[in-house]
Design a protein that fits this description.
By secondary structure, this protein is an alpha/beta fold. The protein has one domain (6-465): Alpha-Beta Complex (Amidase signature (AS) enzymes), CATH 3.90.1300.10. The protein is 40% helix and 13% strand. It is built from 16 helices and 11 strands. It has helices at residues 11-19, 25-43, 51-66, 109-116, 159-166, 183-189, 223-233, 251-254, 277-292, 305-330, 337-347, 351-371, 390-393, 401-409, 413-418, 447-459; strands at residues 46-49, 78-82, 120-125, 172-176, 192-195, 216-220, 263-267, 296-300, 377-381, 422-429, 435-441. The strands form 2 sheets. Strands 4-6-5-10-11-9-7-8 form an 8-stranded mixed β-sheet, with helices on both faces. Strands 1-3-2 form a 3-stranded mixed β-sheet. Strand 7 (263-267), helix 9 (277-292) and strand 8 (296-300) form a beta-alpha-beta unit. The longest helix has 26 residues, at 305-330. It is globular, with a radius of gyration of 21 Å. Hydrolyzes indole-3-acetamide (IAM) into indole-3-acetic acid (IAA). One of its GO terms (molecular function) is ligase activity. This is Indoleacetamide hydrolase. Keywords: Ligase, Transferase. It comes from Rhodopseudomonas palustris (strain HaA2).
C-alpha cells in the first residue's frame, strides 16, 4: 500500500497511524477532501461535502491528541456515511426530494457510537431514494457511478457508500441492508460489506424502510475494518428495544483466527443456478482457495429459497408502504416514478398474505438452521452477474422494472427474510475488469465467524487491495 497518500490506507491502519502521530488528522482529512474534489464530478458519490467543518474537527482532534487526550480508537479518522443516518443539526435527505431540506433533531445511535470513538465528519453519501432500489439510480440526484467503470452501476441502495469506499474517498461508510443494500454495492464496487443480524446494531435514528428487515452495517476495505466498526456499534440500546442485550464477542480478535478448521457450505441449488460464467468461475476459484487454506467445504441443501425471496419482497413492500402512506397521499408527485410504483404496489398486498409471510419466518429459520447444522457459514454469490450498465438497468417504472430488481436481489433477500448476518467480500474480477464479490452467510449473531473466514481469505488474496485505476 502507498505510504505517500494516507487516504490509501485501511481504516485500521489509518486509525493506528493517527494514534501514533505518524500522520495528523488534518493531513488525512485534507487527503480525503482532495480525492473527493477530484472524483465527485465523475462519481456523484456524495450528497454533501463539508470541507471547512471537517478540517476544523480534524484540527480539534489533533489538538486533543497533542494534549494526550484520545476519544477512542477512531480518534481523528474522517468518515462519511449514507445520508439516512440522522445527525442533529444536519440536513438528512434520505436520497429524496421530500426530505431534501429536513434538518435532523436527533443523532442515530450507530452514528453517535462512531462519533464517540473520535471520528470526523466529511459529509454525507448519496443513496437510492428512501433506500428503495438495488441499482444506485436516483430520479432526483442522478445515479452514482461505479469507480471501476463509470458507465456501470454501483448497486444500491448504499450506492454512495460503495463508490466512496472503493475510490478511497472515505475509509469506511455506514450503509443499510433491507434486501441487499450493503452487500450489492460491496459486490459491484469491490469492497467488503457486513449485513448484521437483525437486533445486533441499533436502528434508532436511522431512516426506516421495513421495520422487521432493516439492518445497520458498514462498508469498508477489509473484514478487519468491518469488525472494528461492528465492535463499536453493536449492543443494546434503550432507543431501540429490538436490539439484543448481552456480552459481545471480540470481533477484532476473530479476524486474527486461522481459516483452518472452518466448515463452509456451498448450496446445491438456487445460488448456483443461472450464474454469469464469470461469477461461476470466481465461485470455483474461491472454493479452491478456501480449501487450500484448510477449510472444509461441503455441499448443503437449503430449503425453499425462491419462496424466501418472495416472502421478503412481500414483507418489504407492505412495511415500506405503511411508512410512506401519508406522503403517498399528500406528495405523490415528489417521489421518483419507480419508488412510487413500488410503494403503491405494497398498498395492494392483502393483510392475510403479509401475516402468513410473517408467521412463516420462524419455521423457515428453523428449517434453514437444520440444513446448515454441520457448517459454520454458507458461501454464495451476492448477485448472479457483475455490475450492469447504468443505461441497461435504468428501467424506471416500466413493466419490467420489478423483474430487473428481482434478478439483482434474488440471492440477497432470503438472508434478510431470515434475519441472518452476511459478509460480502471481494473475490475476483470479470474479464472487463469489474469486481465480483461473494457472501458468507452466518448463523444468527455469529458475525464473528464470517468475519474470521473473510479476514483469513483476505490475508492470502489481494482483491480487497485492488483499486480502480482512476482512483
Amino acid at each position: 500500500m502507498s505510504t505517500t497518500d494516507p487516504a490509501l490506507l485501511s481504516l485500521t491502519e489509518i486509525a493506528q497511524a493517527i494514534a501514533a502521530k505518524t500522520v495528523s488528522s488534518r493531513e488525512v482529512t485534507q487527503a480525503c477532501l482532495d480525492r473527493i474534489a477530484a472524483q465527485q464530478p465523475r462519481l456523484n458519490a456524495f450528497m454533501s461535502i463539508e470541507a471547512d467543518s471537517a478540517l476544523a474537527a480534524a484540527d480539534a482532534a489533533d489538538a486533543e491528541l497533542a494534549r494526550g487526550d484520545s476519544r477512542g480508537v477512531l480518534h481523528g479518522v474522517p468518515l462519511a456515511h449514507k445520508d439516512m443516518y440522522y445527525e442533529t443539526g444536519h440536513v438528512v435527505t434520505c436520497g429524496s426530494k421530500i426530505r431534501q431540506d429536513d434538518v435532523a433533531t436527533t443523532t442515530s445511535t450507530a452514528l453517535q457510537r462512531l462519533k464517540d470513538a473520535g471520528t470526523v465528519r466529511l459529509g454525507s453519501l448519496q443513496m437510492s431514494e428512501f433506500a428503495y432500489g438495488p441499482t444506485g439510480h436516483n430520479a432526483h440526484f442522478g445515479p452514482v457511478h461505479n469507480p471501476w467503470n463509470i458507465d456501470h452501476i454501483t448497486g444500491g441502495s448504499s450506492s454512495g457508500s460503495g463508490a466512496a469506499v472503493a475510490a478511497r474517498l472515505t475509509f469506511a461508510a455506514l450503509g443499510s441492508d433491507t434486501g441487499g443494500s450493503i452487500r450489492m454495492p460491496a459486490h459491484f464496487c469491490g469492497v467488503t460489506g457486513l449485513k448484521t443480524t437483525v437486533g445486533r446494531v441499533s436502528r434508532a435514528g436511522a431512516m426506516p424502510l421495513s421495520q422487521s428487515l432493516d439492518t445497520v452495517g458498514p462498508l469498508a476495505r477489509t473484514a478487519q475494518d468491518c469488525a472494528l466498526l461492528l465492535g463499536l456499534m453493536a449492543g443494546a440500546d434503550p432507543e431501540d428495544l429490538t436490539c439484543i442485550a448481552g456480552e459481545l464477542p471480540d470481533y477484532l480478535a476473530a479476524t486474527h483466527a486461522p481459516m483452518r478448521g472452518a466448515r463452509i457450505g456451498i448450496p446445491k441449488a438456487f445460488y448456483v443456478d443461472d450464474l454469469d460464467p464469470e461469477v461461476a468461475r470466481v465461485l470455483d476459484e474461491t472454493i479452491a482457495t478456501l480449501r487450500a487454506e484448510g477449510a472444509s467445504v461441503v455441499e448443503v441443501d437449503l430449503p425453499d429459497q425462491p419462496q424466501l425471496t418472495a416472502a421478503c419482497q412481500l414483507v418489504l413492500a407492505v412495511e415500506a408502504a405503511a411508512f410512506h402512506k401519508r406522503w403517498m397521499i399528500e406528495r405523490p408527485q415528489d417521489y421518483g416514478p419507480q419508488v412510487l410504483m413500488r410503494l403503491q404496489n405494497g398498498l395492494g398486498v392483502p393483510a392475510i398474505s403479509y401475516l402468513e409471510a410473517m408467521r412463516w419466518r420462524g419455521p423457515a429459520l428453523s428449517a434453514h438452521l437444520a440444513a446448515v447444522a454441520d457448517v459454520d457459514a454458507v458461501l454464495a454469490p451476492v448477485a448472479p452477474v457483475p455490475a450492469p450498465t447504468i443505461a441497461e438497468s435504468d428501467v424506471g417504472s416500466s413493466l419490467n422494472a420489478e423483474a430487473v430488481i428481482q434478478r439483482l436481489t434474488r440471492f440477497t433477500r432470503p438472508i434478510n427474510y431470515l434475519g441472518l448476518p452476511s459478509l460480502a467480500i471481494p473475490t475476483g474480477f470479470s474479464a472487463s475488469g469489474l469486481p465480483i464479490g461473494l457472501q458468507l452467510i452466518g448463523r444468527p449473531f455469529d458475525e464473528a465467524m464470517i468475519l474470521r473466514i473473510g479476514a483469513a481469505f483476505q490475508r492470502v488474496t489481494e482483491f480487497h487491495n485492488k483499486m480502480p485505476a482512476s482512483a
